[in-house]
Fold this protein.
Amino acid sequence: MPVEMGMWRIDGDSPRRLARGVLPSEAALEDFLERDPSLLGEPLLVIGRQVRTPFGKMIDLLTMDGEGNLRVLELKRDRTPREVVAQVLDYGSWVTGLDRDRIIEIANNHLDTPFEEAFAEVFGAPAPDELNTELQLTIVATELDDSSERIVGYLRDFGVPINAVFFSYMEDDDRRYLARSWLAATNQSAGPAPTRKHSKKADWNGRDWFVTFGEGPHRAWEDARRYGFVSAGGGEWYSRSLRRLPEGARIFVHIPKHGYVAVGETLGEAKPFDEALVRSGEQWTRLADCDLSAPYEHHEPGEEPEEDDTEYVVPVRWIVNVPRSEAYWVKGMFANQNSAGKLRQQFTLERLTAHFGVNDESDEPRMTYSP
């Protein structure tokens, strides 16, 4: 049975069915979806309209969800079910192989702002490190026939990530309405994702890392600036990624809810706070012997510490560091809750190296701590 949508207006005790209207054109529906892709039921970022493929065809709309997954939207227009399904599958065979760089190139050619800024504006968070891990194909129509239903349902049974949505246009005096109906529930799994041949992660330059410095009652950024270190602890989850930082890594330090405050080079691997050394000039000093404003302990005096409670410390030679009040942040920059990790996002790296005045040729210190 083909999908059909009805809508009734309640006047007193008598429902009155709204008249089915006709959209001026399916191009009008495409315009609606580009302006507000949430018509499909979730926030989406349109990263391309009429995207040209290598085989000379044009994808109506290429969108992205908040997880960085791509969705191909193809309008049925006046094509037969076989034609539109074959077309969207053809597009899917190309889109599934797009890597991060090509996706961002397509987006930047379509958007008025850089991709990372546009993503953060729509979803309220930076773009994920990995894009296009799960593709979705969606046929958009003003009506669905039983043949289209059979074909889409058959493909979904075999794990093809395809669905169909249709919009009904209705009129009520001088008011106009759009009603939406999906062929299959949008949270229904379409089966296992196809095997990927290309990495969808951004390339890593082998050198740059981010560090999240969580200020609070247990640690203080001014201590870290003054004595040259970063730290994390209070549980295995918090310290694990920091302990992976290698000696000689270039780190960009981020304070949550503020921004990036420093760039430096690690001088050693992470050590427990009681064993940690920091360097001043040519001298190494036990951090626990320094005049610190925070305790770097996660238990009350006299209490038995938890096994994984330790604060871990990495010594750092600061290249540039600034107070928290001068933190740098631009919408779309990368940050997450891990204490440390590889910094892959080119958008963030370009802005940080320019802001802090560093590059790959010269990392001479430009700013030092002053009480």
In short: The chain has eight helices and 18 strands. The first strand starts at residue 8 and ends at 11.
